[in-house]
Amino acid sequence: MAHDIPTTPQDDEAETVMAALAHGMTGHPEKAIPLFESFLLAGPAKAVGLCALLAEMSAWHARKTLPKGGTFGLLVFNADTGERGDINEAPPGVRFAMQFSTAWGNGDKDTAYALFRALIDPGDEEGAHALADGIQCLFDMAVLSLNEATGRTA
């Protein structure tokens, strides 16, 4: 079932995502988020494609530095204590973004799709908010990664 969700973007969709990332990288994320509305209105296939594009942008540079056989991952830190945190304590959207990004970054598309489905399948307002938060988090991670890769500071 997971394989029936196409994630290869059309040229105009890729350009829209790149424009949004450019806004984020230049310190204007408020101009980026409205560009994602068309993906969300187009349904789950386009929404998961957006998540995949953002996850790819957040992982590609880090993956280049992995040793042979290494895996991509994210560490969770507790902002209050500065110590290692528990991903299960993160809000649903943030947890989704981190898990989706890690699965995608390791080439585990089946897990990434399953995480997406688990988030949206209830079809309720809570899931919609979590997806919006997750996309915001994926966007923020992609912008940070791209800024790091290019040496930019927004």
Give a quick account of the main beta sheet: strands, pairing sense, barrel closure: none
Low-confidence stretches: 1-8
Q: What quaternary form is this?
A: single chain
What is the tally of beta strands?
0
Order of helices and strands: HHHHHH
Determine Rg (CA atoms, Å). 15 Å
Please tally the helical runs, counting DSSP H or I stretches of 4 or more residues: 6
Q: How would you state the average pLDDT, rounded?
A: 86
The separation of the N and C termini measures 40 Å
Q: In which range does the helix fraction lie?
A: 55-70%
Describe what you observe in this structure.
By secondary structure, the protein is mainly alpha-helical. It has six helices and no strands. Helix 3 (44-64) packs across helix 4, helix 4 (92-105) runs antiparallel to helix 5 and helix 4 (92-105) crosses helix 6. The longest helix is centred in the C-terminal third of the chain and has 26 residues, at 125-150. The chain starts with 10 loop residues before the first helix and ends with a helix.
Features of this protein?
single chain; 154 residues; mainly alpha
Quick rundown:
With 154 residues, this protein is an all-alpha fold. Helices cover 60% and strands 0% of the residues.
Secondary structure blueprint with pairings:
Layout: H1 11-25, H2 37-41, H3 44-64, H4 92-105, H5 109-120, H6 125-150
